[in-house]
Amino acid sequence: MQGCHDSPEAMVKPKAGEKILKVALAGQPNVGKSTVFNILTGLSQHVGNWPGKTVEKKSGYCRYGNHLLHIVDLPGTYSLTANSVEERIARDYIIKEKPDVVIALVDAAILERSLYLLAELLLLPSPVVLGLNMMDVAEQHGYKIDPQKIQAILGIPVVPMVASKNQGVRELVETVIGVAEGSIPYSPKRPEIKEAHRPVLEKLQELLNGLVPEPYPLEWVSIKLLEGDAEVTELVKAKLGSEKWEEISALLKGHEDAILDIAGGRYEWIGKLVKSAVERPGIGPVTLTERLDRIATHPFWGLITMALALGLVFWFTYTLGSPIQRWLEEVVLASVISFVSSWLESWKAPALIEGLLIDGVLGGAGTVISFFPILAVFFAAFGFLEDIGYVARAAYVMDRFMHWLGLHGKSFLPLFMGFGCNVPAVLGTRIIEDMKARLLTIILASFVPCTARMAVLAFLTPVFFGRNAFLVSWGLILLNLLILALVGKVMNAFFFKEHVPFIMELPLYHLPNFRTIGLTVWHRTASFLRKAGTVILAVSVAVWFLSYFPTGSAENSLLSKIGNLLEPIGRVAGLDSRMMVALITSFVAKENAVATLGVLYGAEEETLASVLEREISPESGLSFLVIVMLFIPCVATISVIRQETGSWRWTLATIGLYLFVSFLAGVAVYQVLSLLK
Amino acid sequence: MACLIRPMSEIADGKRVIVKEVSGGKGFVTRMAALGVLPGTEIEMVRNTGRGPIIIKVKGSFLALGRGEAARVLVQEENGARVP
């Protein structure tokens, strides 16, 4: 939209005479919040975490006329209870940061349900502007909505919108400014608790008057107490002291059923509003969503649909992403390397510098970065399925199978993302509310073979197995998934016994919004590139140092000494010291396994493939592949595991688990094959 | 037997029912209420295959629920709702 300029956050400073407005964007999941946020803030978005939480915080700026709007995207939540971290963050932000205006975005096609959050927002002190999004979808469903009437009944400004077509966004901004300036009237009519519990609420407010800690509103605290909100209960208890609390507590005990009257009161309020402002078809037509779901959620056809959809994601990724990746690696990276080395030669740089730049920086981190196109295509394809609303169906279909692992359908999505790269898979577990299920998913995620490991398979299986390479590759991928299931089953039986509730909305299908998909792809790949530029770069250089010192040749280096030390362990699995070193370097990035073998087997005159074919027996080769596929997650993944679990203990336990499982499988494969020989 | 109160997990595809009770902890009750599932609400069973999760339509939105969760929601078939 015009008037909103894209500019990085650091550069945004209010111009002379410009007014800053703090605006919070609230809404339930799937109401098109990110589309609106993207239009408003463009590339000025700053993505980080809420302080001390692993919940994404997005903020950005929008300039309009004489105003600079600082917009914070609150986490998408259905309500504002203390049940989830996201809900606490959203309400704490509004109560403590006191934004000038809160935008409540609702889906007009699911008006009743999505107005529930508005009912909660109106109890908080900031003025609220209602954005009625997806008016087009509502119309297709046969609803006739009168925004004027809603505005009159609610007493708050209402803006009809179709954000996916950029309709109504400008009006939304103008309304927000108008409310903040006081030029648009604001006198909200709030929902009330049902008749039966009204006296109790009044009594409670009387008792608490003057005792509620700043900046919490009295009425809100009273209602939350009646709802049995754990956080607010603790807050009031601490403030009041035991004697006064006893009185409150006794009052609350007699009215534990108040929860339903509060929620019921809100839906009654919504019901009245909808009744007079919305015309509905008697029996709604069978919607597109219902028609598509007859197939997509069918117990049999649903599985077929899912297999097809995910198969397409892979096909797309490898037919489009792989050639670009190869081009980046073989043409771009190779010419950068030859350019840098001739430049270094021209001023006779010492071998140390040359090795560091060429083998350490470009060979290590550079190769990892060349995987960027594969990831970008994978995320674009996955983001497409996410945006049109399909992904939740895949989760539903997979729920039955995930239950076997003590997980539920939602865990399937991050695990599937792992086929692209394990880093976003670990980050993607944020959609799982239950902490234990999330932890288990994080631990299991790295058993999903990522594109880097697929690349190792693609190179090494033809070397060891010739014509059977394809079969062996499939077998190895299946082995990984089988082990994922097995480890999940065992961990679930011993450590995570609790039942994990599965409650998930299946959003209505809609046409894709390519701007939203593009930005998602950008955020996901950018976090990968940041990792490649920092953690992976540092570790690549460190490993290169180990392979260079003290004599400058890989064969006599510290790294090969480590390899020799480990050889006795490796021997049981059929690996020599060079293969052990290759394994260690695969910790930086999985595809390093091949590069290191190249260095250590000294493939100069003949190709690496023919050297390996001659020097490594098939059973050792298979054992090596099994171990590479199951080995410790790469350093980037480890660093996000640490970040997301917030615990070194779990991170180290994960490393230990993968070390144990990979060698166990490698030894088993090698020993059995040797016996059969 | 039309007015029998049963767990939602036992309702067949296409049936419309009224929620009578949501049993469970406060967390579960408030969460379900926020999603529109609370006593007095009309619900349509969209998919119940006898095992695995179910799908319901409530207040215009589609919701997938695990079997365990569905069993904790007690419902009454609509024609029976008028009988006191």
Provide structural commentary.
The complex is a heterodimer of chains A (about 675) and B (about 80). Among the domains of chain A are: about 10-180, 3-Layer(aba) Sandwich (Rossmann fold), CATH 3.40.50.300; about 195-280, Helix Hairpins, CATH 1.10.287; about 535-675, no CATH class. Chain A has 29 helices and ten strands. Chain A has helices at about 35-40, 85-95, 110-120, 135-140, 145-155, 170-180, 200-210, 220-225, 230-240, 240-255, 260-275, 290-295, 300-345, 350-370, 370-390, 390-405, 410-415, 420-430, 435-445, 450-465, 470-495, 515-550, 560-570, 575-585, 590-600, 610-615, 620-630, 635-645, 650-675, and strands spanning about 20-25, 45-50, 55-65, 65-75, 100-105, 130-135, 145, 160, 280, 505. Chain A has a seven-stranded mixed β-sheet with strand order 2-3-4-1-5-6-8, with helices on both faces. Mean pLDDT of chain A is about 85; it is low at about 1-10. Chain B is α+β, with helices and mostly antiparallel strands. Chain B has a single domain (about 5-80), classed as Ferrous iron transport protein A (FeoA) (SH3 type barrels, Roll). Helix content of chain B is about 15%, strand content about 35%. Chain B has helices at about 25-35, 65-70, and strands at about 5, 15-20, 40-45, 55-60, 60-65, 75. Chain B has a six-stranded antiparallel β-sheet with strand order 1-6-2-3-4-5. Chain B is globular and about 30 Å long. The chains are: A alpha/beta (about 675), B alpha+beta (about 80). At the A-B interface, α3, α11, α12, α16 and β10 of A face α1 and β5 of B. β10 of chain A pairs antiparallel with β5 (about 60-65) of chain B.
